[in-house]
């Protein structure tokens, strides 16, 4: 059964009360009115409560034959009465809606003591209420009733009904029932305030959580890089040239394209470009274009509106919005779907884009640093990468040399990894045999720095003393005649997956052994058609 609403449908059976007498029928009609009002307030949304309160004031006031009703609440400092809900038979009503309580000590004392005030004539009020009588006479009040509004143990205000046309007298049993009306109004006000406070708190929590979540997702990776790489190893001339290029371009807003094999440290160099730029006070925003399904990359980059696609239950900003005023690092940009490359090109050129499901254009100022281990020029020739996007990204290319071309960096890299990883494991290494370092220098390192780090970590796990014995991985056998490079790659990855029982992630997983990111390995597996046996 739906609760009744506060409309004029009550007027038909709520005829005005006779001035000097009440009957059992009058009492029952008033009881019905109070019950209907209570029921109507139960399911009223917070935004409708104010209107329903004033409608209730009208219904009660007309039944009582009153001319004016005002609901007043204490100000925050407790020194003023502020009228928040009013009804008048004829507008405008005469009483002020905001007045200082200091001259009205009698009525304030009564209300705070939770005592109702009722008078058939203004002169019936005691001598202590001289200020109150003067105010009532000045505004034309002849008779009236005032009831405290109490929430919990706190008086929040009062409810007033006043007669302006003639002096009225109502029986005591009816006056007592009006106390119940005051309780109903107080309860619904308390619920409204609680709901509004809850909504404000939830909105603020959502805003702060969204902001912290958006920032911290990227800060986690940033902190991890700074911890693992307190400095960039640059003993070789090859890396010194790379860092010189980083310093040259960092101070500008030019787009940077980092080229190089997987595991060479392109992410760390992107961090260096950002930290040396004027945008360093903002968080570096990152996205791995190979780590997400093609259908999700657009939403991650540009955001989406609520209902933009199945599962989009809320509005969400993308990485470009987060990178406004900062740097956006597009890792493995060569994996970006062809259909999305045109939209990326527009953002890079014009700084404008639209969220999924929205027609509103958003303007951003984001510097682009992209990285790839693919030959983008070859991808352009094969039609897998847009030529215009390639030239827009290729403003300032930096080629990161593979580890086999900078063998001078192997020993300092080993030293750095032993120090950082040894501290985490609680192991102390006093020496590393020269023969071990020479063996590492002879190895070709297809997985580059990431593979070297994994070798050091495995050696630390197996080490039982202060001398760390490092063993270089075994070189892969030459490919049989007739096998393409893709065939060799598929065969090698399949062999490692079988050794790990198809475990890709985690310690001693295939990704770690191959020196690849788990997401990169999964992308390669999909491309090579490698699926875990059922």
Verbal overview:
The chain has 534 residues and is an alpha/beta fold. The protein has 18 helices and 13 strands. The protein has helices spanning 24-42, 49-64, 105-112, 130-138, 172-228, 237-250, 266-275, 294-302, 319-322, 338-350, 376-381, 387-393, 410-425, 434-442, 448-462, 485-499, 510-514, 518-528, and strands at residues 68-74, 80-88, 98-100, 117-119, 143-151, 154-163, 256-259, 285-288, 327-331, 352-354, 361-363, 367-372, 396-399. A hairpin with a 6-residue loop joins strand 10 and strand 11. Helix 1 (24-42) packs parallel to helix 5, helix 6 (237-250) packs parallel to helix 7 and helix 13 crosses helix 15. The longest helix has 57 residues, at 172-228.
Write the layout of secondary structure elements.
Blueprint: H1 24-42, H2 49-64, E1 68-74, E2 80-88, E3 98-100, H3 105-112, E4 117-119, H4 130-138, E5 143-151, E6 154-163, H5 172-228, H6 237-250, E7 256-259, H7 266-275, E8 285-288, H8 294-302, H9 319-322, E9 327-331, H10 338-350, E10 352-354, E11 361-363, E12 367-372, H11 376-381, H12 387-393, E13 396-399, H13 410-425, H14 434-442, H15 448-462, H16 485-499, H17 510-514, H18 518-528
Parallel strand pairs: 7-12, 7-13, 8-9, 9-12
Antiparallel strand pairs: 1-2, 1-6, 2-3, 4-5, 5-6, 10-11
Rg calc = 39 Å
Number of helices: 18
Low-confidence stretches: 1-13, 220-230
Helical percent range? 40-55%
Average pLDDT, rounded to a whole number, is 81
Describe the sheet with the most strands. 6 strands, antiparallel
Q: Name the overall outline.
A: elongated
Structural class: alpha/beta
Measured by DSSP, the beta-strand proportion falls in 5-15%
User: What order do the strands of the largest sheet run in, or round the barrel if closed?
Assistant: 3-2-1-6-5-4
| End-to-end C-alpha gap | 56 Å
How many β-strand stretches?
Answer: 13
């Amino acid at each position: 059964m739906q609760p009744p609403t506060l409309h004029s449908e009550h007027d038909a059976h709520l005829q005005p009360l006779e001035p000097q007498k009440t009957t059992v029928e009058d009492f029952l009609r008033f009881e019905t009115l109070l019950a209907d009002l209570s029921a109507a307030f139960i399911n009223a949304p917070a935004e409708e409560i104010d209107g329903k309160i004033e409608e209730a004031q009208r219904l009660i006031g007309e039944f009582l034959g009153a001319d004016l009703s005002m609901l007043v609440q204490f100000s925050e400092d407790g020194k003023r009465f502020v009228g928040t809900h009013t009804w008048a038979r004829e507008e405008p009503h005469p009483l002020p809606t905001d007045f200082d309580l200091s001259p009205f000590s009698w009525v304030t004392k009564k209300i705070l003591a939770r005592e109702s005030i009722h008078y058939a004539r203004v002169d019936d009020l005691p001598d202590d209420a001289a200020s109150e009588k003067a105010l009532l006479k000045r505004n034309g009040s002849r008779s009236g009733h005032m009831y405290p509004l109490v929430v919990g143990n706190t008086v929040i205000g009062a409810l007033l009904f006043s007669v302006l046309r003639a002096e009225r007298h109502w029986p005591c049993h009816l006056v007592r029932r009006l106390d119940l009306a005051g309780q109903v109004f107080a309860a619904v006000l308390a619920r409204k305030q609680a709901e509004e406070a809850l909504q404000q708190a939830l909105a603020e929590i959502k805003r702060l959580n969204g902001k912290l979540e958006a920032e911290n997702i990227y800060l986690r990776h940033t902190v991890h890089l700074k911890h693992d790489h307190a400095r960039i190893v640059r003993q070789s001339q090859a890396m010194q040239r790379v860092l010189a290029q980083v310093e040259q371009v960092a101070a500008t807003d030019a787009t940077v394209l980092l080229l190089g094999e997987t595991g060479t440290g392109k992410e760390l160099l992107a961090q260096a470009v950002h930290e040396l730029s004027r945008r360093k006070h903002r968080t570096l925003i990152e996205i791995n274009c190979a780590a997400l399904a093609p259908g999700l990359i657009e939403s991650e980059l540009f955001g989406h509106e609520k209902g933009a696609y199945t599962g989009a239950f809320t509005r969400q900003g993308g990485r470009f919005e987060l990178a406004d005023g900062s740097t956006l690092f597009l890792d493995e940009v060569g994996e970006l779907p062809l259909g999305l490359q045109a939209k990326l090109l527009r953002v890079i050129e014009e700084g404008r884009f639209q969220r999924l499901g929205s027609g509103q254009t958003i303007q951003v100022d984001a510097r682009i640093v992209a990285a790839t281990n693919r030959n983008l020029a070859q991808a352009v020739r094969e039609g897998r990468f847009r030529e215009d996007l390639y030239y827009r990204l290729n403003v300032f290319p930096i080629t990161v040399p593979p580890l086999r071309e900078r063998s001078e960096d192997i020993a300092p890299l080993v030293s750095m990894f032993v120090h950082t990883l040894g501290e985490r494991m609680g192991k102390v290494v006093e020496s590393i045999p020269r023969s071990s370092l020479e063996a590492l220098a002879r190895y070709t390192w297809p997985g580059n720095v990431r593979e070297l780090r994994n070798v050091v970590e495995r050696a630390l796990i197996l080490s039982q003393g202060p001398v760390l014995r490092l063993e270089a991985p075994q070189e892969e056998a030459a490919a049989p005649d007739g096998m393409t490079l893709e065939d060799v790659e598929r065969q090698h990855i399949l062999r490692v997956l079988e050794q790990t029982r198809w475990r890709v992630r985690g310690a001693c997983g295939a990704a770690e052994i191959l020196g690849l990111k788990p997401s990169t390995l999964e992308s390669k597996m999909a491309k090579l058609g490698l699926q875990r046996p059922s």
